[in-house]
Design a protein that fits this description.
The protein is mainly alpha-helical. It contains four helices and no strands.
Length: 75
């Protein structure tokens, strides 16, 4: 057994986007390739940003610390 197991294709999310957001008819949705659907998603939502790594998050927290008032509550 390998350490990497591919994730199954997210059909439920794809169908919600295709039918709900793009308002595709079933025939149109099922005629699309996954790559075509991916491009349609990017066209509507834009390119997804990669999540922050820990070092970048720590740098942002140092640069923009939460303000705490006298009672200890965040402002």
């Amino acid at each position: 057994m390998t350490a990497f197991a591919p994730k199954p294709f997210p059909w439920a999310e794809a169908m919600r986007f295709g039918f709900g957001v793009l308002r595709l008819a079933p025939r149109e949705f099922w005629a699309m390739t996954p790559r075509e659907l991916a491009h349609a998603i990017v066209a509507v939502r834009g390119v997804a940003a990669a999540p922050l790594d820990r070092a970048t998050l720590d740098a942002l927290l140092r640069r923009f610390p939460d303000r705490v008032d006298a009672s200890g509550e965040r402002a």
